[in-house]
Amino acid sequence: MSDKSSIAYVATEEKPQRPAPASTTGVLGWTKENLFATPLNTALTILSFLFLAWMLPGIVQWAVLDAVWTADSYRSCLEISNNGACWAVVGARFDQFIYGFYPHDLRWRADLAFVLLCVALVPLLWDKTPHRGKMMLLSLLYPFVAYMLIWGDGFIFSEVESKKLGGFLLTMIIGVSGIAFSLPLGILLALGRNSDMPFIKSLCVGFIEFIRGVPLITLLFVASTLLSYFLPRGTNFDIILRVVIMVTLFASAYMAEVIRGGLAALPRGQYEAADALGLDYWQSMRLIILPQALKISIPGIVNTFIGLFKDTTLVSVIGLLDPLGLTQSVLADSKWNGTVVELYVFIAAIFFVFCFAMSRYSMYLERKLSAGDRH
Amino acid sequence: MKRNFLPVALGAAMALTAGAASASTLEDVKARGKLNCGVSTGLTGFSFTDDNGEWQGFDASVCRAVAAAVLGDPNAVEFVSTTGKTRFTALASGEIDMLARNTTWTFSRDADLNFTFVGVNYYDGQGFMVPKALGVESALQLDGATVCIQTGTTTELNLADYFRKNNMSYEPVPIETNAEARQNYLAGACDVYTTDASGLAASRASFENPADHIVLPEIISKEPLGPLVRQGDEEWSDIVRWVLNSLIIAEEKGITAANADDQKAKSTEPGADTEIARLLGAEGEYGAMVGLDNDFALRAIKSVGNYGELFEEYLGESTPIGLSRGLNAQWTDGGLLYAPPFR
Fold first, then answer.
1. ipTM
2. Quick one: which of A22, A75, A283, B225 has the fewest CB in 10 Å?
């Protein structure tokens, strides 16, 4: 055996790792990979930057640099700065856009209702909430508490009429109750449509197809005008309740179809397996079918929620003063006549916050629930 | 000035049969302690919300005057904002007690929809606004113009009639709201904007350079705007009619919100105007004839001012809208305001 090993050199220690080439890490690497990977991407990136360079200075100039933040009328805005935004109108009318005509001294009740809404949502949205089961029971009580706070019960809290509700308070009332009630109703309708019982099936199919075949605005007109003829004069069937019912029915028909998509996407084996285990109908739905079907449907469900939330602005057509309806009465004040864009930008920003939050939550939920799918 | 007759007519018929069973509107209002008054969701000068979230304006003041007369408190009003589409059903179904919403008094609304117009609080008419740079001085020079026009309104029909009558052509740019019209007009999407003259003045007041635009002299339609109530309750329509008339007579007689009490005290002196005494409740039992007390007109005048004061506050030359009295001057000044005698 030779002294000399056939192997010239044996590394006894692992070599220290060298950093990745500078061109693939950090800002430079990210830029290269994401913005300039191919000639097409490079061209698109340059075009986008040119577009931004063309648009942004004007927008910033209008919205920030030349903007007027405090003034007492549009005229004085124009005197201070001729071509900037007049954000003063948002400041002057902020309360009105949030609460509508809710009495000043009772606005804490609306605030409290909003805070409690956030509290009630925690156990529903976040599965690591301590004592989640008990908290959820409390959340079930929320609708009653909110009703008492906002409308008053005549005993502890003085009553507030529906005519006083407006602005984002109204949007939240219609949006949140529509969202809360349309999901369970939609699930029932979807199950009914898949049912073997002909009567229930045709009832659900008829309802869904009718509601989907009619524009929401028609339903709102029915709620606001036609219903008041069919009810005896003097009956006070609250207009907001009527609107909430119509919006809920409308959204639940769409919801049913979204969930039916989820049900149809499940392999037949899942249904048969549930039967083979000897589960009855409700057990198999609750334990096996719906958890999977709803998971598949999340993007569609949230889509419907967001659509419903934005559709609440249609109530301005029947004279309810949601934020968009309020812009009309604000613009009619000759002090602020002309501040059109500012008001719409403000309302759009608030809607964006809510809709974006919903969309991000659904992405989080999808990621969390799909963890089990990765093999 | 939108209309939707069929459902309204249908509803009015039903509401009337239902209404026959219920108490009179006056009793309803008194029992409720609030007047439900329909106003526009927003029309410059006529109804708008101020920075405190209160409804103000020329139309809203009519509501306040009626509330002051009937309930003694100009703030005892629940304002119900109505759109062009919901206003008539809201009134017919009893959701509101009266409608003060720049509504044109027409034959069919009066007769077919079963409403009673109690009077006219603003004589309006359709006009045209053009940029000065266009060099147009009369509506007859508008042949071939593009016109911004609100869809589904009587203004649309008036426009078509006027251009056809004068053998001119135009290209309509349909728009939905006043705000939309403003943006379109300023962006140059149309040469001409047409709507009620008061609306034109209001829009023009909000422009950066109002002097660059002119309202043409031609007024092509009659738009008598006034408050209305349901037909069939004559006591209630008398009340609303005479509250409006009181405000008009008050201006004619020089009674203002500030001097009404003095005028009442002086009206019983020998040689004073007896109509003032009757109007302000110092003489006769006129309030009792409509189921109110004798001070009802006094309260209405004291709470909102006389017609002229209202006009100056919300529409007149001291406001950004800057309307002159024109047709809305007292008959003694060559206008059309002519309230029947209070006697």
1. 0.81
2. A22
> Do residues A163 and A155 lie in contact, with contact meaning Cβ atoms separated by under 8 Å?
no
Q: Are residues B44 and B193 in the same domain?
A: no
Q: What is the pLDDT, as a whole number, of residue B13?
A: 47
| A326/B49 touch (CB, cutoff 8 Å), yes or no | yes
As a whole number, mean pLDDT of residues A158-174 equals 92
Flag whether residue A170 sits within 8 Å of chain B, measured between CB atoms: no
Residue among B97, B94, B101, B118 at smallest CA distance from B237: B118
Inform me whether the C-beta atom of residue B208 falls under 8 Å from chain A C-beta atoms.
Answer: yes
- The arrangement of strands across the sheet holding B126-131 comes to B170-175, B145-150, B192-196, B126-131, B213-215
Which pLDDT score, from 0 to 100, does residue A18 have? Answer: 84
- Contact residues on chain A for B206, CB-CB shorter than 8 A: 74, 334, 337-338
Check CB contact under 8 Å for A233 and B202: no
Whole-angstrom distance, CA of residue B305 vs CA of residue A297: 62
Q: Do B7 and A224 touch (CB under 8 A)?
A: no
pLDDT at A35: 86
Cβ of A225 within 8 Å of Cβ of B86? The answer is: yes
The residue among A369, A251, A247 whose CA lies nearest residue A300 is A251
Q: Is residue A3 part of a domain?
A: no
pLDDT of residue B19: 43
List chain B residues with CB under 8 Å of A328. Answer: 41-42, 177, 179
Nearest CA in chain A to B87: A319
| Same domain? B99 vs B135 | no
B103 close contact with A: CB closer than 8 A: no
CA B191 – CA B193 distance, rounded (Å): 7
Reduce the DSSP state of residue B238 to 3 states and report it. Answer: helix
B 1-40 near A (Cβ less than 8 A): 7, 10-11, 14-15, 18-19, 21-22, 28, 40
When pLDDT is averaged across residues A292-312 and rounded to a whole number, the result is 94
pLDDT in tens, B4-33: 444 454 444 444 444 444 579 999 999 999
Range of the domain at B317: 5-123+224-333
Can you tell me the distance from the alpha carbon of B180 to that of B162, in angstroms, rounded to the nearest whole number?
24
Q: Do A340 and B83 touch (CB under 8 A)?
A: no
Give the chain B residue nearest A81 (alpha carbons).
B208
H-helix or E-strand containing B213?
Answer: strand B213-215
Contacts of B177 (CB under 8 A, 6+ apart): A328, B150
Dihedral (Cα; B189, B179, B196, B88), 10-degree rounding = 130
Residues of chain A in contact with residue B7, where contact means CB-CB under 8 angstroms, are 225-226
Residues B232 and B146 in one domain: no
pLDDT at B294: 94
- Express each pLDDT in B120-162 by its tens digit: 999 999 999 999 999 999 999 999 999 999 876 778 889 999 9
What tokens does B119 get?
A: 């009077």
The pLDDT score that the predictor gives to residue B2 is 41
User: Taking 50 as the threshold, does the pLDDT of residue B244 lie above it?
Assistant: yes
For residue A50, the tally of other CB atoms under 10 A from its CB is: 10
Residue B139's alpha-carbon distances to B147, B160, B190, B192, in angstroms, are 12, 13, 15, 10
Domain total of chain A = 2
The token pair at A83 is 């071509």
- What CATH number does residue B68 fall under? 3.40.190.10
Q: Is B75 on the interface with A (CB under 8 A)?
A: no
Over residues B176-209, the pLDDT tens digits come to: 777 788 889 999 999 999 998 988 888 887 787 8
Suggest the residue from A168, A335, A337 to mutate for an interface test with chain B (most B CBs closer than 10 A).
A337
pLDDT single digits (tens) B98-117: 999 989 898 989 999 999 99
More confident residue, A304 or A335: A304
The CATH number for A277's domain is 1.10.3720.10
